[in-house]
Every structure is written in C-alpha cells, then in structure tokens.
Amino acid sequence: MKFSDFNLHSDVMQSVDAVGYEKPTPVQELAIPVIMQEKDIIACAQTGTGKTAAYVLPILHIIISDKNRSDSIKALIIAPTRELAVQIDQQMEGFSYFAGVSSIAVYGGGSGTDFEVEKKAIKTGAEVIVATPGRLISHINLGYVDFSQLKILVLDEADRMLDMGFLPDIQKIISHVPPKRQTLMFSATMPGEIRKLARKEMNDPSEINLAVSKPAENVLQAAYLVYDNQKTALLKSLIKGRDLPSVLVFSATKSSVKTLEKELKKLKFNVKAIHSDLEQDERKIVLREFKNREIQILVATDIVSRGIDIDNISLVLNYNVPQDVEDYVHRVGRTARAEKTGIAITFINDREVRNFKNIERFIETDIRKISLPEELGTGPEYDTIPKRNTMHGKFNKNRNPSARNRPKKH
User: Fold this and answer.
1) How is domain 219-388 classified at the CATH fold level?
2) Most buried residue, 100, 197, 343, 360, by most Cβ within 10 Å?
3) pLDDT digit string, tens, across residues 214-231
C-alpha cells in the first residue's frame, strides 16, 4: 500500500511527497482510513511506529476538506510532556505547509512571553492546539478558550498521562469540549484504566493493536552484568574508538544524570545532559545539538524517552535497569526508528537482576548477556534470591530460618 491510496487531500499529499513518505507503517495503514471516516479509534502501538503521522495526516485532511471551515479550534491534541508536544507540533507544522492550517504547542516551563503568545493564538483561533494538560488548564481557567467548534480530540501516550497522575486534568479538559466529537486515543499499553476511560468518553471506537509493549524486531538488544563501580569504565570501552556518532544514555535520576555527565566529560567525551532542572530553552538547545550531531553523547532521564524525535541514533544505553517495563520499551524505542536497525544495551547490577528478568518475561525475549572485558574483572551472577526469603533486601525473620538454605525450585 502507498500513501496515495488513502485519497488524502491534495494539499496534504504535497507535504507527504515533499518529506519522501511512500509506504505507510502498519499503524498508519490501519488508522488513517478509520480516522478519515471521522470514527473514534483506540490504537495500541509501540513507540517509533509512526503513530503521530497516523493521526496528524487525517486530521489535516478533515480540517481542509470542511466546506464551512472557520478561524476556530478544530482539533485538540493532549500529550504528557513538553518534548512530545513540541515534536507533534513540528510534524503538524511540516505536514500542513501547503495546507495553511494554523497550530500552536501549549506547554509549561517557558517565560511569561511564551504564555502570552499561546494566549493570543488560542484567542484568535489556532485550528490545532497541541498541549500538555497542566498548561492548557491554566488557559482554560482564565476563561478565553473556546472549544465550541472542536471536532477532534486526541489523547496521545494515554497510558503515560495516567502514570503521571494526569487523569483528573484530562477529565477536566474533556468537560470543556463538545460531547459530540471524534476522539482518538493512542497508547503503548492498554491497562484497565485506559479501557475504562475509553468506554466513558468514546463512541464505539475501532481498536488497533500492534505488537503491544515489545521492542521493534530490528533492535539488537544485549546486556552486561556489571557492578556500579565498573559501569563508567565499561561505557568508555563500548564507545571509545567506535563509529557511534549518536549515543543516547538513560539513567534513573537527574542526580545520576548530572554525575555521569561530569564523569564522561573528564574522560574527554563530547557529552551533554538533559533533565528536569534545565529550563525549557536550555533543553531545546541540547536536543537540537544532539539532533545535529554537534554532541556525540546525550545523557538523559526518562523525560525524553517518549518525546525525542531523532533518527539514526547509533546506540541506546540503559545505565540502569528501568523500574517499569514500559520505560524499557520506550527507551529502547529511541533507536531502530523508521524501519532502520539499532542497538540497545542495558547495564544490570546485582540489585537489578529481578527487574531485568521481569522485563524479559514481559517482552517474551531472552536478551543476550555479554561477558565483561577482561580488564574489568567479573560482574554479578544472573541470579536472584527467591522473593519469599527477602524483605527489602533482608531475610524475612518471620519465616522459618531453615528456609534460607532450601534448594531453589526451577
């Protein structure tokens, strides 16, 4: 199938042709025709599958094709992070180049001037609003947001928004939009809360399920068993002297990200960090430099795991095992985008083995464990103490002490 088979408006197809799109991804092939029929849809697809274009293109088609088109808000797209909101707005701007559809990204962290720019765009009727929940509610509370002509509501990364505690904000936003509308929900997973929200807010939605919560097949996944004091040396050995122009390193907390950035700078690597302590403008600059290959290594918290839109990342490295299986999937999804191959490596310390086994079980894959370089010595064993014998890392004294020496069951 080709994009020309969708019969998108000619102004939209001009942009599709300009960016070189020819063959749609599976989620695009399934979602675009349904959305063009102005039906509700709930789509479950892994990151990096082209889901943003899957709804942006038909939204533009619907807006342009409306014979009664006016200067009012037609579509509202809600996203969990400012990075994702910016990414979506950039795609909206690119694909609407020949169509003249106005849009604006509305998100927190900017200056008072940014807020005024958003306010002016909202009041004068930007046709598409891409917003984070909290910032949009700030505008709604001031009384000038008019959703009376809204036709389409999109909830992107719905599972992530619920994880971040945005459900009350989403419900408040929904209370301000017309009940008669088209609702599109995109999510990497479909927990019960998402299905409950869909039943309440959607009208007989079509469902799309694609490779739920599994990394793309073209990602080469591997792992090292390594103690914390060996990690920096191992990272150096993996990157030094290799053809890896673009390396994305995820670490658990902003303090660990800052520490790792300092350590890598001491080793003379071209590296910068991104985390929630940076101002929005600073984060934009760092992401732009990484995208333009002006810096080789970007060290980040999960703040960018779903919001970064950069192709050809050579290596994604988990400096720690993510606590959440979904975070692993989204971290790994930053490489091997747009049907390209990629490498994802995870460092597993002695306290993270159980978490990593949970990840393997969830994605139904035994990830290859690579031996440490000889000069680093040996790492932890890939084994864990049975959970029944542990309590916060210590032996559970309320149980029979003899259980400590019982053989493990396989």
Assistant:
1) Rossmann fold (3.40.50)
2) 197
3) 666 668 899 999 999 999
